[in-house]
Amino acid sequence: MSVYDAAFVNTQLSKKTSIFGLRLWVVIGILLGSLIVLTLFLISLCLTSRRKRQNQQQLPSKQIATSPPIISKEIQEIVHHPVAPVPEIQVDIGKIEHRVVFSDRPSSGESRGTGSACDTASFASGSVGPEVSHLGWGRWYTLRELEAATNGLCEENVIGEGGYGIVYSGILSDGHRVAVKNLLNNRGQAEKEFKVEVDAIGRVRHKNLVRLLGYCVEGAYRMLVYEYVDNGNLDQWLHGDVGDVSPLTWDIRMNIILGTAKGLAYLHEGLEPKVVHRDVKSSNILLDRQWNPKVSDFGLAKLLCSENSYVTTRVMGTFGYVAPEYACTGMLNEKSDIYSFGILIMEIISGRSPVDYSRPQGEVNLVEWLKAMVGNRKSEEVVDPKIPEMPASKALKRILLVALRCVDPDATKRPKMGYVIHMLEADDLLVRDVCTVFFFFFFSFSFKIYYVIYNSKELQLSILESISILQLVLSNFVINYAGTSNCKRSFTFTS
C-alpha cells in the first residue's frame, strides 16, 4: 500500500462521526468489539441452557424397591356453627394434621360415602348410564366401571384420604392404572352444575398438575378419575420412615419447589378465570419416579362450593398451612395459596411439619421457629439433617428469603407466583446479567481492534457503507436491554 493510501485511511479513520462525536476508528472498534461480545454472550446462553438440561437429566432417578412410606394421618374436621352463641372448636393436638372447617349450617345427616369396607350392595341401587361417553378432554365413566376397577371401592385399594374425599387405586378394563377420588361433602350437587365445573378442571393441562382423565356422576355419587402418579406424595417422603438418609437430595428438593411453583403460577396467571387451590400442602404434591412434582386437588374447592350450596361460606384448609387472614375472615385469593406455598418451602427445607406438638416449646410452629433461627444467624441449622449433603450457603439463604417473603403477615406484600419463580431461578438470571456487564466493559477496550483493518482499504470502504445501519441496530439494542434493569435487580437480590 502506498503512502498516499495509508494517509487516506488515517484521515478517514480520524474523522469525527455523528455518534456522540466519536472518531471513526473508535466506532469501528466498538462495533467489532460488540460483535465479539455478542457472540460470546450467545455462546454463554447456549452453554447455560445445555448445562441446565444436563443437570435435569442427572437428577437421581433412583427407584425405591418398596412402596413409598405410608403415613396414617387421620383428618379431623372442626365445625363452627355461626347460629350458636358460643362456637365450640375442638382440636386434637395429638394429630399432626387437622382440617379446619367453618360452615353456615349444621352438617347433621351428612354422608361421608363408602370406602371402609368392600361392600358393593350400594352400587346395585344406583342408576347405570351408557358404558362409554367421550369428552373433548377425556371421558366419563359409569359407576359399574369404577366399581370393577377398584374392587368395589375396597379399603385395600385406598391410597389416600383428605378433606375432599377418599382416593382409590384402580385398573380399568384396558389395563390403564388410575386414581379414583370418591368426593365427600358433595350434598347431592346438581349433575349439570357438577359437569360444568369438572369440564373446566379437565381442560387444564400442565406438566406440574395432575391430569384429570374423566368423572362419574350417578345418583349421589360424584367421582373423579385422575392419572396415577406412582411414587407417592411429598408428605410421605418428608415425614415417613425413609431411614437416616433421605433420597430427597437438595437438588431434588429445589426441583420440587420450582415445579410446584410453576404449577401454581399456571393456575393463578395462566388461566382465565384464575384458579385458587385453597389447600396447598405436601400431601397434595405427588411425585413421579424422576421426582417431578405434580400438584393435585386443584379446582376442587370451587367444584364443591357452588353458588347454590351453603358450602360457599365454608373455609377449608389444613391446619398449619392456612394464611392468617383466610382462617379469620374467609377472604380467599391467590395470596392465600402463596402463604401455603411458603410454608411448603420451609417444610421441604427443614423436613419438619408445619405444626408439631411433639417438639419443645418454641419449635412447635415451623414459621416462628425458622424466623428465630434466621434472625439468630443459624440458617444452616434449619436444614433437614437427613439431606446427604449440605447446600451452599448462598443457595440456602436465597430459598429462605423466598419462603419468608411468601409468609409475610401482610398479604399485599407477598409476591405473585410468577415473581417467586423469578427469584427461584435467580442463578440463571445472574449469569445473563453478568454477561451484560462484560458487554459494556469490553466497549472501553474494543478500540484496539481497529489495527486489524488498518491496512485494508476495501474493508474500510465496506464498513463506511454499512456504518449507518450498524449504529442504529447497536443503539436500539443497548437502549432496549438497559431498560430491562435486570442487572440491577439480580445483583440487589443476590447481595
Automatic annotation (TrEMBL):
Family affiliation: Belongs to the protein kinase superfamily.
Membrane topology: Single-pass membrane protein
Cellular component per GO, a single term: membrane
Pfam families registered for this protein in UniProt: PK_Tyr_Ser-Thr
Residues reported in the UniProt entry to bind ATP: 181
EC number, as in UniProt: 2.7.11.1
Organism: Dipteronia sinensis
InterPro entries: Kinase-like_dom_sf, Prot_kinase_dom, Protein_kinase_ATP_BS, RLK_Ser/Thr-Kinase, Ser-Thr/Tyr_kinase_cat_dom, Ser/Thr_kinase_AS
Membrane-crossing segments per the record: 24-47, 429-453, 459-479
Catalytic activities: L-seryl-[protein] + ATP = O-phospho-L-seryl-[protein] + ADP + H(+); L-threonyl-[protein] + ATP = O-phospho-L-threonyl-[protein] + ADP + H(+)
Any GO MF annotation of the entry: ATP binding
UniProt-recorded name of the protein: non-specific serine/threonine protein kinase
PROSITE patterns xref list: PROTEIN_KINASE_ATP (PS00107), PROTEIN_KINASE_DOM (PS50011), PROTEIN_KINASE_ST (PS00108)
Domain of life of the source: Eukaryota
Ranges of residues in domain Protein kinase: 153-430
Broadest EC class assigned to this enzyme: transferase
Keyword Glycoprotein: no
Protein's cellular compartments: Membrane
Record keywords: ATP-binding, Kinase, Membrane, Nucleotide-binding, Phosphoprotein, Serine/threonine-protein kinase, Transferase, Transmembrane, Transmembrane helix
Principal location: membrane
